[in-house]
C-alpha cells in the first residue's frame, strides 16, 4: 500500500479533527470528499508530513517514518499542493517550479528538463517567464500543481486543485490526473463531486473526522435514491451516505 | 547547493530587499551617529545612545521577514536539509549586520560605539529569530520592537544594577552584565530557529 492509515487521531486543542480514521490507498487517482470541517485538509496535512498525528499509525510508501532519514526519503517522493499556498511574487513561473525542484533535492542536471515538462503538463510553458504576481488565480493554481509534480512523485496530494480553474482547464486537469495516476498514488481533496466522478477510480468520504465511505464513484452514486438531495447520481449518493452516517 | 539554487533561495527569502534595507540602515546609523556626536550641546560620543538602540533593531526587523518562506508548510515538506541552511542564514546575516554597524561606530568604539552596536545586534537578532519560531516570520519583528521601544521609553541609560540586565540595549558596552542577556537571547533564538524553523 502506498498509504496505510490506521486509527488516525488529530486534535487541535480540545477539538478532535480526525477521530480514529482508517484509510488505505494504492496507485491510481483517489478522490477525498466531505463537507467543510470534515477533516480533509487535516488528513492531507498529515499525509504530506506537515502535521503530526496525535494517535494512530501512518505508513507512507511502505515506511513508518521512524526517523529523520526515512522522513526525508518519503518527502523526496512526495508532491503536495496545499489548499492555499503562498508563492514568491517576484519569481517567474519557471523559477518558482525550479526552486521547489531544488528543495526536493532533484539532481541539478535533471531540473531544467523536469521543470519544462511539469509546466507543459499544466499548460503554463508559454507563461514560464512571466512573474508569478502577474498570473491569474487559476494560473497560480496550475503553477502550484507544477511544483507538486516536478519530481514525478510516487505520492501526490492535491488539496482543492481545481479551485479557480475554468471549465476547459478542469477538463485538461482531469486528463492530467488520469495520466499521473498510472504510476503514482494521487489523492485529490475536493468539493466538486463531478471531478471525482470523472477523474477518480476510487472515492473516500470523510465526515466528522471519520471515514464513512470508500468505494468506486459508481458505488457512491448507487448509494443515493430519488429522494436524496442532489442534481446528479453521485451528488445524491454523497448526500445519502452523509445522512446515513449521521443517523 | 549550486550557485543557481543559492540565488533562488536568497531571492525566495527577500535577500535583495534585506540587503538594500541594511545599506540604508547602515548609512543612517553612520550619518546620525556622526551628527549626534559632534553637536556641541550634546555630550560627545555618549549622545549616540538612540542610534545604538535603534540601528540594530531596524536591521533585525529587516532580517525577520527573511527567516521564513512565502509558504512555510510547502517548504517544510521539502526533503532538503533545512538545519544547515537555517544556521548559515541566521549566522551569515548576524555577522554581516554586526560588521556593517560596527564600522559606523569605530570612532570611540567603547562609548556607545562599535561594541554596543555588536552587542545589540546579537541581542535583537536572537529576539527576532526566537520570535519567528514562536509566532512566525511575518510577526517576528514585533517582540523585539516592543521590547527595545519599551526599554528606551522606560529606562535612563545608566550603568549599574539590574538595569544592566533588563535594559541591555541602552547600556554602555563596558557594563559587563549587559552582554549576558544579549548573548543569551542570541544563542537561544538562533538555536531555536536552526532546530525548528519559522512557524508556518
UniProtKB/TrEMBL annotation, chain A:
Entry keyword annotation includes Transport: yes
Q: Which InterPro entries match?
A: AAA+_ATPase (IPR003593), ABC_transporter-like_ATP-bd (IPR003439), ABC_transporter-like_CS (IPR017871), P-loop_NTPase (IPR027417)
| Signal sequence region | none
A Pfam entry, by short name: ABC_tran
User: What keyword terms does UniProt attach to this protein?
Assistant: ATP-binding, Nucleotide-binding, Transport
Name the SUPFAM superfamilies for this protein.
P-loop containing nucleoside triphosphate hydrolases (SSF52540)
Q: Does the keyword ATP-binding apply?
A: yes
What GO molecular functions are on record for this protein?
ATP binding; ATP hydrolysis activity
Which CDD domains has this protein been placed in?
ABC_drug_resistance_like (cd03264)
What residues does the ABC transporter domain cover? Answer: 3-233
Family as reported in the entry's similarity comment: Belongs to the ABC transporter superfamily.
The name of this protein is ABC-2 type transport system ATP-binding protein
UniProtKB/TrEMBL annotation, chain B:
Membrane-spanning regions, if any? 20-37, 49-67, 87-106, 112-134, 139-157, 177-195
List keywords of the entry alphabetically.
Answer: Membrane, Transmembrane, Transmembrane helix
Name-wise, this protein is Lysylphosphatidylglycerol synthetase-like protein (DUF2156 family)
Annotated source species = Actinoplanes campanulatus
Task: Specify the taxonomic lineage.
Answer: Bacteria, Bacillati, Actinomycetota, Actinomycetes, Micromonosporales
